[in-house]
Each structure stands twice: as structure tokens, then as C-alpha cells.
Amino acid sequence: MTVFGVHVGLQHTTADELRGVWRQIEELGFGWISVWDHFYGATGKPDDAACLEAVAMHAALACTTSKVRVGSLVYSVGYRHPAVLAKAITAIDQLSGGRADMGIGAGWAQVEYDAYGIPFPDAKTRLDQLEEGIQCLRGLLHDDVTDFAGQHFTLTEARNEPRPVQAKLPIWIGGGGEKRTLKIAARYADGWNVPFIAPDAFAHKNAILDEHCAAVGRDPNDIKRAINVGLAYTEESLQQQFGAISDFVRPGVLTGSHDEIMDRIGQYVDAGADQVNIALRAPFNLEAAARFSDALQLS
Taking the CA of residue 178 as centre, how many other CA atoms within 13 Å lie in the half-sphere pointing to its CB? Predict the structure, then answer.
């Protein structure tokens, strides 16, 4: 059964507005709400800095809702030590009564790293950090005691107590890199997420992930697959939501008539998507989310 969720941006909004948005999304029958991890807005401009911090808002999401899975797509491994992140996610799992998911990625928004003085190494190094970081997270979130000795992270008889409510809190990898990111996901992740690509591209990357699973002897069905898509019934709505990056995200935006949108969703499901998340950002168009919910009879 396909899960439908909403991925809510934290830019150009307030905590009060977000709490109202999250409540309405849950009432509309969606099964998932997630936050992103940015310090600046998504435009990449150095003066676009109106964005709320992710861990705090992930906790607020857990406390505001009562039914949905509460996730993150995805935390940047370069912003927080994975042990610190594991402790935070454990607390969020307790706040939510066992509804937390967490995602981790290599990070990409150099404007944020530069502004805050966080080292922004080359892609290989960031992916090395991701591969080590997810192993640390798996140990701390899934095991009682963890030892890990890597180039970037070290854990020595590390304990994460009290434990998460869930015996195996799901860990997602975010990103579409076929050589490293999907290989890391195949080996260590419980879920894989990628944003704003067309169904044929999703199918291609999904098949690559299956190949990586076969190479490490893992059942590909052990890994959930999710796509983040935009929702814009009109071109005006697309431009309002995404502005200068509209053409970049366009392949992964649901648009057109009811039948066209339903057909597009079917294409993603046929391509292997277990979960479809609508990416919403301020100004939030909850009328479109409600229309989408009605079309799918979620509530």
C-alpha cells in the first residue's frame, strides 16, 4: 500500500504557522510529515536566511501531531556529529510515542556551510562522512552498545539511553547518486528518498539500488522507496512555490488535471515508489493539499 505524505519546508514561516499546517495535514489523512535540514532558504542566495532549525522543529512536529510518522528528509551529516543526532532523534521518538523516522544525507548547500564556518569538503569526503555516519546512527539507534573507528567519527562503548520507543527506528538515505549514495543506502539504510525527478528517472535509480542490494546480498524489499514531488495545479502556482528553480524541479511536479495527476502518481508507483511525498513550502497552499487528499480519498 502506497503511503502519501507531505514534506514541509521550514523557510519563510513561523513555528505557529507550521503547527497549524501540520495539524491540518494530519487531519487530511496523510500518513507522513517530514522536515528538511537547512539554515538558509532553498534558493541558495546568501541573503535568503529565513529558515527554522530542523531538530527543534522535528521535535515540535512530534509534539503537535498524534498519528502521522514524523520524519526528516534529510539531516546533513556535516552539521551535527551522528552521536548527537542519534540522541536527538531518540528524544523525538519518545516525544512522538514511537512515530519517528530519520534521514541522513551528504549535504550540498555550500552557502550555509560557508556562512556558519562549517567545513565543506569535496563530494568524496562528504560521502565518506555519510557512510561512516549512518553506521554510527545504526549502532546507537538499533544496538545497546556501539564501537566504531572511522576516519571521521569514533565511538567507544557508546550507549544511547534511554532507548528509542521503536526497537528499530527507521533510517533513510537521501540522494540520487548512483555510484556512492545508492550503494550506501543498499548496505545500511531502511529507506531511500529522492526529490523532484520524473518517474522514468526514479525507475532507473530504483533499479540501480536493487543492483547494489544484490551485490551486498540484501533483500531489496527491506528498503522503502520514496519520491518527493511538487504539487502545482497551475503554472502560476509552480512559479510561486519554486521561483528561480521551477524549471529544475518541473520533472518532479504533479500538475494538470485530476486524471493527469492520478496517472502521474501511478507512474511513480509502477516505478517502485512505496511512498509519495508532496513538497510544500511557504506560502503554504493547503487548498491544493486538501484537493489532493480528496482525490485520493485519504480522509
Answer: 10
Report the alpha-carbon distance of residue 282 to residue 270 in Å, rounded. 30
Contact 31, 278 (CB under 8 A): no
Cα 171 from Cα 211, distance rounded (Å)? 20
Cα(25)–Cα(65) distance, integer angstroms: 10
Q: Dig out the grid coordinates for 257 from the structure.
A: 488535471
Q: Running DSSP on this structure, what letter comes out for residue 51?
A: B
Torsion angle of the four alpha carbons 21, 68, 5, 9, in this order, in degrees rounded to the nearest 10: 40
Collapsed DSSP state (helix, strand, coil) of residue 286: helix
**Cβ(139)–Cβ(164) under 8 Å?**
no
Mean pLDDT of 32-60: 93
3-296 CATH: 3.20.20.30
The letter for the amino acid at 257 is S
Query: 126-182: per-residue pLDDT in tens?
Result: 999 999 999 999 999 999 999 999 999 999 999 999 999 999 999 999 999 999 999
Burial of 162 (0-12, 13-18, 19+ CB in 10 A): exposed
> Whose grid coordinates read 576516519?
151
- 169 sits in the region (left: phi over 0; alpha: psi -120 to 50; else beta) called beta
